[in-house]
Amino acid sequence: MDAAQLTEIRVREPERIEQSWRKRARRPRCGPDGRLLLVAADHPARGALGVRGDEGAMASRTALLDRLATALSRPGVDGVLGAPDLLDDLLLMGALEDRIAIGSMNRGGLQGSVFELDDRFTAYTPEAIAAQGLDGGKTLTRICLQDAGTVATLEAAGKAVTGLAEHDLMAMVEPFLAVREDGRVRNLLDPDSVIRAIQIASGLGASSAHTWLKLPVVGELERVLDATTLPTLLLGGDPQGDPHDTYAAWGAALALPAVRGLVVGRALLYPPDGDVAAAVDIAAELVHGSRG
Q1: Domains assigned to the chain
Q2: What is the DSSP string of 79-112?
Q3: pTM of this prediction?
Q4: Who contacts 252 (Cβ-Cβ below 8 Å, separation ≥6)?
Q5: Could you tell me where the DSSP H helices lie in 133-272?
Q6: Quick one: average pLDDT of 75-88?
Q7: According to the model, what pLDDT value does residue 291 have?
Q8: Are 246 and 236 in contact (CB under 8 A)?
Q9: Number of neighbouring beta carbons within 10 Å of residue 193
């Protein structure tokens, strides 16, 4: 199904989206190995379109959908993380059958904005995620001790975790300690800052029964992960340099028992050589190969 057909459905049969969510074939959250490989594609909804210095790399929805369809068709890929517009497109394309679908919830902290750290929940709600039959929701939770907007984000994230737990759905929390420098937000990626972010995020919500963490690969990762018993997925970010170095770092991190998989977007969808299938296959082997 191409972009023109998707637009035609939206014009003439918008009810088909809701019907398709109800009919979608679902699967258990994790397979026998208890691990997940999810493709992240929620960056555009926050105005973040850049990949390795190309500020408009993700601007074409047609190209992004094509890359996502390729990724989701590969063995070992468990599902996708995205905002409603993108997940609805993938749904109509049939790409979400028997795949995990995680809805990105707070996309209000637009990249580069003065209100970036007052990260409002402008996309999925727990109620919508449950009603449409998605498998969970994700909240980006940046914590800046010098920015008053942080407390609103923390409150909203806590409510999201509580709401998802009430529906027995995954709450994926992506926490960072952050600072604003020269008008830009920078996440602190030293081990002690990540540990502190973990401790704050782990206490959000009225129940942690369905909370998973999404964390960066940082130094002293074994010590960092000793900060929590929550299942952890590692994020891929916007990698620079040799992809083989990135794969080696992922492989080492995946050997730690708390790490249950990867959530990777740009590194798999926009690899330097353009071969999405090959990049995805490497990640799938790292996640599932030894324990699948």
Answers
A1: 3-288 (3.20.20.70)
A2: EEEE-HHHHHHHHHTTTTTTSEEEEE----S-TT
A3: 0.95
A4: none
A5: 149-166, 191-202, 221-225, 243-254, 266-269
A6: 97
A7: 42
A8: yes
A9: 18
